């Protein structure tokens, strides 16, 4: 009896997904530890602990809250990128262009704030539109010209990066390659805090962006699971031809979902740069990793909008934690390495689930077989008894 | 002008090598989006070889050793794709993307660790190879001939012959078109796909070292290879998965990439007064435009991207 309950526990998809993600994290951390140990065996254990502690490295609770705030500020854009990728993946599209859509959103938000001196809600609108346009291009190319969305996405990432560098060069600081500070130049463009900063020891970077991302994640879950539109998107993702046969407009859904995905990633850009937490470097020559880390968060979150909230926080937690590692001994990119290992391991999740399910099914069949054999034996003996009686 | 030709050929060599790699992998039925990462690993292997080879070694030794190590690094790294995509039937897009991120992060961590061990103040992820790089260059007048150009040409000829003139090549292509049919006549599909992926690792690794030695004498491993692996995939699609067409497509893309290195040398282009960023964007824009026209009537191998399951036979 006890065993049967256990079986049904492991066959639940939620349990399997969480177990798979936790396994990926553990394996990723172990491999990360090995890499650290190869570089320098002495401090490897401590370094991994530092990575996991992140803001808890500080002993004062006030400082802890403040740096938890900083981690959350950077989780918001990451979560938006992850949601963008998740949303498109449900339609069967791998939106690696989220990185570029994020870049477009960041750049346009800063452009609206610094060059056009617009208030924050218009800056946000600019960012969403810019991201959506970048997604739209990928969508149109995919739907009508059969262009692989991964390749066009990557190309647009680079085009977007150079475009934004060019656009923001006029508003950069004189002495540095960084854009002017939004806080100083246009205070109206800073996202409202609504007193949230006070909860994190007066961390001014904590704004409505953080609760907004979580609300958006919930909205996405509702759209995907409770609306006709979401149902159509999932159907298109599962089998494009079958969806078409059932009267759904596949091309329209592809374009629409990439547009929404682009808008989400663009919003992520606004959510970071309109807090004034970071400045854009107009000489940067590689696409910001936010969109790519979003891929890690998406898959670690088992492709579920709510799961993504937690996985985004985890990825950002160890990325921020990387900054506290002893830089004299270890490169801080070790956290990027661990996220990359985690993504690679996520590729095995499907196999892991099939394997577990196959074992569960095999066990169930064995149990059934046993029951049947027992019943047959019983019936046989009953028959025999009956035969004797007649 | 000679400089433009020189850079065009160099960048075309890179794109062609990597695109041929992608071509082998896709003909066997596996989409290799991890080429970018494979290039980084090949580049890392080659750069480290140049760094650690004794300076007195002959030109011939340097060339052979660098090529061999780059190829080996690329092949070893492509194991990651082969195991996941072929044996574990994983999502090939996801694996490829993970490989790209992994390579960039691993190379950065690795090079930084080496630099920091040598000199605690050096936290850069840069490897210099000014001296050994000269082994690859032969000056013919003002044209700098690079041995890698010859290597690329040989690879092109070999790829064409292997794909269309050998039993192995034809079988490989069968596995990408209709693996069930191939299996039914006794071809080991999984083995052929492994071969395809490993060959792509070989050519990708080689392409990586050619890329980081083209025009510069040190490499910052933080930047990876700047989307070149994906440009190569665009080249492959434009070349319709055929080696000779790939070579022509590579020349076109190489030309636009070379322009961004040398445009200041042309009075006409310089007088246009366009910012340098425009030229940096050029290869990516061109490849988007090209993809728009090359993808509709795509001659992609029919079974690419689908893990082979014996049960579907």
Provide a descriptive summary of the structure in words.
The complex is a heterodimer of chains A (390) and B (313). Chain A is mainly α and 390 residues long. Chain A has one domain: ABC transporter involved in vitamin B12 uptake, BtuC (Orthogonal Bundle), CATH 1.10.3470. Helices cover 74% and strands 0% of the residues of chain A. Chain A contains 17 helices and no strands. In chain A, α2 crosses α3 and α6 runs antiparallel to α13. Chain A is globular. In chain A, 49% of the residues are buried. Chain B has 313 residues and is mainly alpha-helical. Chain B contains 13 helices and 4 strands. Chain B has helices spanning 2-28, 35-52, 59-87, 92-118, 130-133, 147-165, 167-177, 179-184, 189-213, 228-238, 243-262, 267-272, 276-294; strands at residues 126-128, 137-140, 143-146, 218-220. In chain B, strands 1-4 form a two-stranded antiparallel ribbon. In chain B, strands 2-3 form a two-stranded antiparallel ribbon. In chain B, a hairpin with a 2-residue loop joins β2 (137-140) and β3 (143-146). The mean pLDDT of chain B is 88.
List the quaternary state of the chains: heterodimer
CATH second-level architecture of chain A:
Orthogonal Bundle
Could you list the spans of chain B in which at least 5 consecutive residues all have pLDDT below 50? none
Helix content of chain A: over 70%
Could you describe the largest sheet of chain B, including whether it forms a barrel? 2 strands, antiparallel
Name the CATH architecture of chain B: Orthogonal Bundle
Q: What percent strand of chain B?
A: under 5%
> What Rg of chain B, in angstroms, do the CA atoms define?
20 Å
Number of domains of chain B: 1
Overall domain count of chain A: 1
Structural class of chain B: mainly alpha
**Secondary-structure element string of chain A:** HHHHHHHHHHHHHHHHH
Please trace the helix and strand order of chain B, writing H or E for each element. HHHHEHEEHHHHEHHHH
pLDDT < 50 runs, ≥5 residues of chain A: none
